[in-house]
Specification:
- The complex is a heterodimer of chains A (1048) and B (429).
- With 1048 residues, chain A is mainly β.
- Chain B is mainly alpha-helical and 429 residues long.
- Classes of the chains: A mainly beta (1048), B mainly alpha (429).
- Chains A and B meet through helix 5, strand 26, strand 27, strand 28 and strand 30 of A and helix 1, helix 3, helix 5, helix 6 and helix 9 of B.
């Protein structure tokens, strides 16, 4: 038999690995069970799994809907379970007697809501959506296909209720952040917990490059989020639970929700080989409009405009003045203009680029065990020249049925990811920022006789210096492995033991060449800069869950679970920076000036918890679950460990009641499930392992010292507690053609942790402490429908809508505004969402028009002033603003709602999928806009040159004639994006292959927005809590991809 | 079957590993670690010195004192109008907002120095060895006095001791306490043999004996205690140097974060002086302070490694000149002034020498004081003392004709006011 030929060597290998667990198998009579599964149309349904209940025997239907497997069963009554994605599960009883072969044919019906979909997330006991009192989103492998996204995180976009997925950067190695139901923490991460095959995996973004880049104190986390190491082609399904309900099972680490990822595994049957290959083409989607007026204010100093007087002519008159400071600015701005050539630097910075993604997998198995192996290679070049991302991956998984009651599954995933980067935003030596901070009047392509680039504006850098001579690299080696033992020693008892680890080593090297031209600010490292950094991460997960399911009464089923989980996390981080480089060498050895101390930082942390959960199910329609959990983390003091977190949930499948089926509406209103849940969770990773201590920094000064820090800890700090209530319903109409799911939720976060500014007379300036309360209230809705469906043509549509209101409801200790970034532009203010822009604004007349003031004969805008204590504006005798500049809230970076509208059309073997995303009601702080106009390359500067606004208008807004009017810099980011269009054609039963699929996919094709920048979605702070920060971030490219999937 | 059981059991045993509930931080000591041993406290002395002198853990006291005083008294000029905080100081008056970053960090770092120095004083009580006990206490006194003296140069009221809702005292009380602390330390030093190993650990580049005297002279002068100022200043051995030292890792903050960037601030021509105060064209101190190297460095800010003096010999001479002049001992005052004017670079411990003829102006108190002030402006250029000097010598105040400074005193930082109900009212100017 073919099957044995293929399975033997693998079985042999797995046996070697797991030799210790091979046990003798009691010989019981072997029977063959086979049959056919058909749909409502009478056609066979493929990929339906058939399992003998409470045993490990089973199989999967083939392309015609037929299945067949052998099982070692004692004579007696059994139940066969038929389950499959998109279908209602079905059971059929089977009595094993003396015969050796049995046939069971069933017909199954479609289920748009997948209420009978088997869910693993939430309990290790397999359960169905039907039983859950909380909302859960699932993404199956079919939905994972036909997407041009190479980062797993991007795939969740538009497929998960309550999720806001943001691509923070268009860098091929850039990151993506996800928030489930809004911001859950400010000091800690707001990202959900990621679990791959039962093992918790890290998704952080360590900075191993860009060590010198955060000029703004914006807590940048700009690299890739580490889920980029996981190849989406290896994913079988994803389950997402949004709220604190997840935490009752996964522990408090899941207080921001949990994303559980299951990788592909082999299926019983002959070996299947699948090959995926694709090519993608990237280009800049949106070009900035730059100043095109061929004049400039001022008097040219020299032909190359390199004198002091040629700086910043939009905002300052620097000609013939000794200093260049505000004293000079106080003078009249030059109104004279001189002719210049204006350039569009975008031509020099951006380039079209290509990429490729390849994946090969082999899988198969027998009733004794299955296997899945895959290898992959991805390379993608960025649209900013000299950037790329590359990933090699290897994935192995085996499932073995050791005995009738014991299963072992083991898997390992290895990835090598490398990237070539350039400095991200938040400084003036990134590719975008170097272009933003100079007027577009210099020919940046000019070179001297030696081929060296020439200087541009004094102090600044030529953008091409960054692109051509910088060399930034990262390399990550990662492996995630798991070993899971599943025991079903007696009927109804299920024990799962999972051991696994996630470990990676991430190295970053930065080389910024010496700048060959003079007068570049020392802050931009004109003498060259080099750094290396290494981050090692190790996380070990243990989970043990036992559950027992039995019928308490005839109609009352009881499931009891108890479990223990523990994680141990160890990190090491080492880094060194240097400047003043000798030539040729590009590593740290080139540095003649090691201006920072070598960094060697190690942490260890343990997180532990145990839980008990009890579910009662009444007639398979009413389910009540209650659970309790104790959790602790070594990051907190002894008194704050072992906190009790309760949970309760209720699910009522009203449509299973007799009155429903006998009613006349049941013909079109088929399913109604009501659900409600309540849960509490503490954020165990809300503070770093040692943040609670007052610690001194070891310094190299004199004979070595302990430096007192500005920030101190509180040893009695407690975990942030999130209490969440959610209620919702799942409905199905017209025989599954229309589905409607919604949830309402209310999260209350108490003891919110923040670094709180204290009076320096305390002896420190900030204290990390429990400082406030925050809520997230929201509404999630998903409508799925199939408006048209006939033999050849099918139209599926879905609408996802998530609304979330975040508010910091209380700050303890009378805390006022707490700035999150160093500039204090955005932060936390009682009564407002996290990250509000609390800023200076225009002084206005009573009728709302701008209150202008006379500056050298020009009427210019100015900031509102008044009494800072009361925030009430004041006017002097002349009716002009007086007092200190006042601040007000102007927007925040959290969207009011996000929505995704997907339409999928299929005609025979051709299908078309169109995804539209809308993110509405959020604001971006447009630093680049300020800079572009201040230096003269922006469109407002152009208007001033054209005389459409008075001379000095830009300077007045930009903060050079009076304080900066920040209100003008906050811009609406609302956008609707044509996120993805995928056209797919499938060919079946070819001579050389079982099937072949060709896809043409476009991503990020069009954005409808009013934002004056590359893209309102990007965030220069990356995955940081600082959002809406547009300071030189890489724009997201438009991508066209052609892919070919062949199944052999 | 047995083997499966073994897996199960070993898994359960592994749980034990994850159960450790407390991990010590291998990267940094806690406050308890630090103040429970002599060695820990010795290293905090270095840490405090670092906070006062180096920008590693936040803007250093000396950096922001030089920056703020320099910008408020026209010693420095802002290089990029985009540096709003610096521009506020340069423009002064109502432009200086309480949330100004420069005065904010000057305030916070100096308060931290005060707080940590007090912890040293308190912690020294638990040290057994009397020499070490005294040594730690002396350094505690020194840095607390420096913190109080620095704050008193910029604010009208100062918290003498740190804590929640700290109470404020007048700057006179702060300076008085600073003088007491320094004089007590001097007395204590007389009866203490500081172990050589201790000195080398905390830094021999600070000559303790003379620094205590020099600072006492400085703060007595600020208090206009003329006799005490003369007594202390005259006791200082002018051949000895006391400095904050720098290197690549601990760079000279005024050089690295200030002048070399060409984008923060720079020195002014003629020390920012004009009119009657315009220094003589032949004044050799012009060369010392005003000639910039290719990295924009000059004076005590030539490069990353240039040491900044804690006091200069010239200051001690000028204190004696000033105190005598204030006492109307004009002839004596002139002798000290002439010592400064005639001093050659070679004669000065730091190479600061005017090499000018002796004072030949009218021998009146007012004229002498003006010449002394002018020489302080030149000799002690960018030492962070000019705002205090400008006030003490009654130079034209902000708003007055020919104003030479843009503020008299600074407003209290916003963060201080938000967190301390005892924060006094801001000065009008």
């Amino acid at each position: 038999m073919n099957r044995k030929k293929i399975s033997r060597p693998l079985y042999y290998q797995l046996s070697l690995v797991l030799v210790f667990c091979v046990a003798s198998i009691a010989a019981i009579s072997q029977v063959k069970i086979s049959g056919k599964v058909t749909g409502a149309d009478g056609k066979g349904v493929p990929l339906i799994s058939v399992v003998v209940s409470n045993t490990s025997f089973g199989g999967v239907t083939d392309g015609e809907g037929n299945y067949s497997f052998n099982a070692d069963l004692k004579p007696g009554p059994y139940t066969l379970e038929f389950t499959g994605v998109g279908f209602k599960s079905q059971t059929q009883s089977l009595t094993v007697g003396s015969e050796s072969a049995y046939t069971a044919n069933v017909s199954i019906v479609e289920d748009a809501l997948n209420l009978d979909e088997v869910i693993i997330t939430g309990t290790n006991v397999r359960t169905t959506k039907k039983q859950l009192g909380n909302s859960i989103s699932t993404i199956n492998s079919k939905q994972l296909e036909n997407t041009g996204a190479s980062n797993l995180t991007a795939i969740l976009n538009g497929r998960v209720m309550g999720a806001q997925v943001t691509q923070n950067s268009g860098d091929p190695a850039g990151g993506i952040s996800i928030k489930l139901r809004g911001v859950g923490s400010v000091f800690g991460s707001s990202e959900p917990l990621y679990i791959i095959d039962g093992v918790i995996v890290d998704n952080s973004s360590a900075n191993v490059i860009n060590l010198n880049a955060d000029a703004q104190g914006a807590r940048i986390q700009t690299g890739a989020n580490r889920l980029v190491d996981i190849n989406p082609n290896d994913i079988d399904r994803i389950e997402v639970i949004n709220g604190a309900a997840a935490a009752a099972i996964y522990g408090s680490r899941a207080s921001n929700g949990v994303v559980q990822i299951f990788t592909k595994r082999g299926r019983v049957g002959k070996a299947k080989v699948s090959l995926f290959t694709s090519l993608n083409f990237n280009s800049l989607r949106n070009r900035l409009e730059m100043n095109t007026v061929p004049f400039r204010f001022g008097i040219p100093g020299d032909a190359r405009l390199t004198t002091t007087g040629d700086r910043l002519t939009t905002i300052a008159n620097l000609t013939g003045t000794a200093g260049t400071g505000p004293a000079a600015l106080g003078g009249r701005l030059i109104e004279a203009k001189y002719p210049v050539t204006r350039y569009d630097y975008q031509d020099d910075i951006f380039d079209n680029s290509k990429g490729t993604d390849n994946h090969l997998s082999v899988s198969g198995g027998t009733d004794k065990g299955t296997y899945y192996v895959s290898a992959s290679y991805l390379k993608n070049d960025g649209i900013i020249r000299n950037t790329n991302f590359q990933r090699y991956g290897l994935n192995v998984r085996g499932d073995i049925n050791v005995t009738k009651w014991a299963k072992v599954t083991a898997g390992a995933l290895y990835t090598n990811s490398t990237s070539k980067d350039l400095p991200n935003g938040n400084n003036f030596f990134s590719p975008i920022s170097t272009m933003t901070i100079i007027d577009n009047v210099w020919n940046i392509n000019e070179r001297d006789a030696n081929g060296n680039l020439l200087a541009v504006e004094q102090v600044r850098m030529n953008p091409l210096s960054v692109i051509e001579t910088y060399d930034l690299r990262t390399e990550t080696n990662r492996s995630v492995a798991d070993l899971k033992l599943n025991l079903t020693p007696i009927r109804g008892l299920n024990i799962d033991l999972t051991n696994g680890f996630d470990t990676y080593s991430q190295t970053g090297n930065t080389y910024q060449a010496r700048i060959p031209y003079p007068a570049v600010s020392a802050a931009f490292f004109p003498d060259g800069y080099v750094s290396y950094a290494r981050y090692n991460y190790f996380q070990w997960t243990f989970d043990g869950v036992a559950s027992y399911k039995f019928n308490l009464l005839k109609d009352l089923q009881s499931t009891s679970s108890a479990g223990y989980s523990a994680q141990y996390i160890k990190t090491t981080y080492a880094a060194q920076e240097g400047r003043d480089l000798i030539p040729i060498v590009r590593t740290i050895g080139a540095a003649q000036n090691l201006f920072t101390l070598p960094v060697d930082n190690r942490t260890q942390q343990s997180i532990f918890g145990y839980f008990f959960q009890q579910t009662f199910g009444y007639k398979n329609k009413l389910f009540l679950t209650a659970a309790g959990r104790f959790d602790g983390s070594s990051a907190f003091g002894e008194d704050a460990q072992n906190i009790f977190y309760p949970k309760a949930s209720l699910s009522y499948n009203l449509s299973d009641e007799d009155f429903w089926s006998s009613s006349n509406f049941s013909s079109w209103f088929n399913t109604l499930k009501l659900r409600a849940s309540y849960g509490k969770a503490g954020n165990l990773t809300g503070v770093g392992p040692y943040d609670r201590f007052i610690s001194y920094l070891p310094i190299t000064y004199t004979g070595g010292g302990f430096g007192p820090r500005n920030s101190i800890g509180n040893e009695d700090i407690r975990p942030e507690i999130k209490t969440e209530f959610e209620a919702g319903a799942d409905m199905q109409f017209f025989k599954g053609r229309l589905g409607l799911q919604f949830s309402l939720y209310n999260q209350e976060i108490t003891d919110l942790i923040l670094p709180f500014n204290i009076a320096a007379s305390n002896g420190a300036t900030s204290l990390v402490d429990n400082i406030g309360e925050m809520t997230n209230k929201g509404f999630e809705l998903m409508i799925t429908g199939t408006p048209v469906k006939n033999n050849d043509f099918r139209w599926d549509a879905s609408l996802l809508y998530n609304k979330n209101d975040n508010e910091v409801t209380r700050l303890y200790k009378n805390a006022g505004f707490i700035g999150l970034d160093a500039t204090g532009t955005q932060g936390v203010l009682e009564g407002y969402p996290v990250g509000v822009y609390y800023i200076n604004y225009y002084a206005r007349n009573a009728d709302g028009s701008l209150l202008l003031r006379d500056v050298n004969g020009f009427k210019l805008p100015q900031v509102e002033r008044g009494d800072a204590a009361t925030n009430i504006p004041a006017r002097d005798a002349n009716g002009q603003p007086s007092g200190t500049p006042l601040r007000q809230v102007f927007g925040d970076p959290n969207p009011d709602y996000t929505a995704t509208f997907v339409n999928e059309f299929s005609y025979k073997n051709l299908s078309l999928r169109i995804q539209l995303d809308r993110v509405a009601g959020f604001e971006v702080y447009n630093w680049d806009w300020i800079t572009r106009n201040n230096v003269g390359n922006g469109k407002l500067a152009e208007r001033e040159l054209n005389g459409e606004v008075p001379r000095g208008w830009v300077a007045a807004i930009g903060g050079f004639i009076g304080p900066r009017i920040q209100e003008e810099h906050v811009q609406d980011g609302t956008f609707t994006k044509l996120r993805e269009v995928a056209l797919t054609y499938t060919l079946n039963k070819l001579k050389f292959a079982e099937s072949m699929k060709v896809s043409l996919i476009g991503r990020n094709l069009i954005s409808w927005d009013n934002y004056v920048g590359f893209d309102p979605e990007i965030n220069a702070s990356g995955q940081s809590v600082i959002r809406g920060n547009d300071f030189g971030a890489f724009p997201i490219p438009r991508v066209f991809q052609i892919s070919l999937t062949t199944n052999f | 079957m047995k083997k499966i059981l073994n897996i199960f059991l070993s898994s359960v045993l592994l749980i034990g590993v994850g159960c450790k509930k407390e991990y010590r931080n291998p990267n940094a000591p806690t406050q308890e670690d630090v103040f429970s041993s002599t060695d820990g406290m010795t290293r905090v002395i270095v840490g405090i010195k670092n906070r006062f002198a180096v920008n590693t853990l936040g803007a250093a006291s000396i950096y922001q004192a030089i920056s703020a005083s320099g910008l408020s008294t026209k010693e420095l000029v802002v290089q990029n109008a985009g540096n709003a905080d610096l521009a506020q100081l340069e423009n002064g008056g109502n432009n200086l907002a309480p949330n100004n970053g420069v005065i904010g960090s000057l305030w916070s770092t100096t308060n931290i120095v005060n707080s940590e120095a007090q912890k040293l004083i308190n912690g020294s009580a638990n040290v057994g060895d009397v020499n070490l006990k005294n040594a730690i206490r002396i350094y505690g006194h020194l840095y607390k006095a420096m913190a109080l003296g620095t704050m008193a140069a910029f604010w009208e009221k100062v918290p003498l001791n740190n804590g929640e809702n700290a109470e404020y005292s007048t700057r006179i009380e702060a300076l008085t306490l600073a003088v007491q602390l320094l004089d007590q330390a001097s007395t204590l030093l007389g009866t203490t043999t500081i172990p050589a190993s201790f000195t080398s650990q905390v830094g021999a580049e600070i000559d303790l004996k003379n620094t205590l005297l020099a600072l006492s002279a400085r703060y007595n002068m600020m208090l206009l205690n003329n006799d005490a100022a003369i007594a202390k200043a005259s006791a200082v051995d002018l051949t000895k140097k006391s400095t904050f030292f720098y290197n690549n890792v601990n760079p000279n903050p005024v050089f690295r974060s200030g002048v070399t960037t060409a984008n923060v601030y720079g020195i002014r021509t003629d020390f920012g002086l004009s009119g009657a105060l315009l220094p003589d064209a032949n004044d050799k101190r012009r060369t010392f302070h005003l000639v910039k190297n290719t990295a924009n460095g000059s004076g005590f800010f030539q490069n990353d490694a240039t040491a900044i003096p804690i006091y200069q010999p010239g200051e001690m001479l000028l204190i004696q000149a000033e105190a005598n002049a204030r006492k109307s001992q004009l002839a004596t005052a002139k002798t000290f002034l002439d010592q400064v004017l005639q001093k050659t670079a070679a004669q000065d411990a730091f190479g600061v020498g005017a090499e000018l003829p002796p004072y030949s102006g009218p021998l009146t108190q007012a004229d002498l004081l003006q010449e002394i002030y002018k020489n302080r402006c030149v000799e002690l250029y960018l030492s962070g003392m000019k705002l205090e000097d400008s006030r003490r010598f009654n130079r034209p105040a902000p708003g007055a004709a020919g104003a030479e400074r843009t503020r008299n005193f600074y407003p209290y930082p916003q963060q201080e006011r938000d967190g301390n109900t005892n924060t006094p009212a801001d000065p009008a100017i």
